[in-house]
Amino acid sequence: MAFLLSVISAASSLISEQSWRAGGVTLLWPTNGFLMGYLLCAPRRRWPAYLAIGFLVDLGVNLLLGESWASPYLALCNMVEVGLAVALMYRSISSPPDLTQRKQLTALILYGMVVAPAVASGLAALTSLLFAHHSSPYLRHQFLLFRTWYLADALGAATVTPLYWSYRFRVGYNSRSWGERIGLFLLVIAATLLVFLQSRVPLLFLLLPVLLLLGVRLGLAASALGLLMVSVIGGLLTTWGHGPAMLIQNSTLAFRDLSLQIFIAIAMLLLYIAEVVTSESTRLQLSLKASESRFRLLAESSRDIIVMLGLHGERLYVSPAITEVLGWQPQEILAETFRDRVHPEDAQKLTQLLEDCAAGKPTRPLAYRSRTKGGEYHWLETNPRLYHDPLTGEPAGIVSILRDVAERKTAEEELARAFRMVQNLASIDGLTSIANRRLFDETLEREWRRAVRDGRQLSLVLLDVDHFKLYNDLYGHLSGDDCLRQIAESIRNVVTRAADLAARYGGEEFALILPNTDRNGALKICNEILAAVRKRSIVHNANPHAVVTVSAGCVTCIARDDSSYRIALEAADAALYRAKALGRNRVEVAHSADGSCGDPTSPQLPPSNAVSS
């Protein structure tokens, strides 16, 4: 890094020396931009070392240029600029950097080209304060020094930092051929020479379309390299007395350099903004194509017919499933309105359904008859939905799923299976493959409300594996996991009603929700589970029974508006605690005198029914 930094700094100084001798300024200073890009790709713990190396390199170059008294201070100003820029930018720049992202380009422009160079330029402009008085000419000199330093460093960061990142992360030029790359860069060089080798006509504007073509074809890194070429060639020719800047009457070389810097800065902004807009448009198009591909894949793979209609009933899209179900090709259906192939007796009902849907009214599925290509009528079911424009929010059309009613059960089973697969990600315990705590809580709240509405009984059961910690200590956690899976399987074999829910409540605890189940039914299920677990004969030498057993706490409630399912949980938990305290491998049932849920230890309740397994 130190060698490359030295080479860049020395080369920049040699190129700029001719301009300095002729009274000009440094057009572009690349060293800080290079070091800035290097640091943003390096671990932050190494930043102080790299800044120290940069300081020494900068100090050596300044000493060689004869700035002995100010060299340490100027080198320090450069490192302050680099350090401030990377400190402000590193949270916004990704790895690898992508300046086609609006946030990252904004960070480079704001911090790397505005804030940090302005601070460093302000500090550099103070170099003569110890040796001069505050006269007006002096203050004007300080302003010129600030402007010179600022523009050179800002343009250096704008061009060299993206170039370094392009090299560092091997970012190509948009996968173009080598012939096209070389041809475009030669075009930039030729256009630059054409503009700057003559001083009669102001042709500077010709460079903009050439640079824009370069950026569109090869990307942002190529734009930065093209700007660097224009800066070097244009700067040297301007120093030698050529180029459009010579048309400015009675101007100094410094003023002509300033005009070239302003042009490069404007061109840079235009090119970079155009690249961001182009990249965003490209990403949007790719996203739209991916979305369209997914939609077509789903539509063409589905056995249901997907139809998109306008608000007035005209067909906009029909999926290929129409051929399998009715025999028509999608193009044949698109050429007609939906009424043309509907049975006369069903046409009015379907028309009313679509009109209600377009008006935003709630609709229900409708079964109707549609004519096949063979001439007979086939029963379909439609369930239209209104969709809206994502930008305006206004109704844009109707999407309808047409289903062959004869195969409805099969199709519904497939959809339910697919839905369950998706739902498993959030609702199924990964170890035991039964419901998790989240699904248990949601189901309990829903079933409680239903029990309040219907006035039916609801039973809850909490189960806990006896001496499970000792089991893990004796046989290891892998065996513990297998034990929990076997217990869950035993519970699943007993709890078979569709309305019931078995869930892993947490750790070695399980829970059951048994809607419309009285005390005797819940007790029967608990005893069957305890027996099924014992029957598995899972060896457990730390258990008095020598096999794995479970304890259960059960409560049966009649839910009321003034009660809460949390009371039922607390009652079941207290019953479970009592089962554990009374020797484990048993069921304890909590049931209040008036049929509502309560604490089994409350004095107003009769003695709890303890059932030993």
Explain the layout of strands and helices:
Elements: H1 2-21, H2 31-40, H3 47-64, H4 71-89, H5 102-124, H6 136-168, H7 178-196, H8 207-218, H9 220-239, H10 253-301, E1 305-309, E2 315-318, H11 321-326, H12 330-334, H13 344-358, E3 366-371, E4 377-382, E5 385-388, E6 395-404, H14 408-427, H15 437-454, E7 457-465, H16 468-475, H17 477-494, E8 501-506, E9 509-515, H18 519-535, E10 550-558, H19 565-581, E11 586-590, E12 609-612
Parallel strand pairs: 10-11
Antiparallel strand pairs: 1-2, 1-6, 3-4, 4-6, 5-6, 7-9, 7-10, 8-9, 11-12
Helix pairs in contact: 1-3, 1-9, 2-4, 2-6, 3-4, 4-5, 5-6, 6-9, 6-10, 7-8, 7-9, 8-9, 8-10, 9-10, 16-17, 17-18
GO cellular component, one term: plasma membrane
Pfam family, one: PAS_3
Domain PAC: 364-417
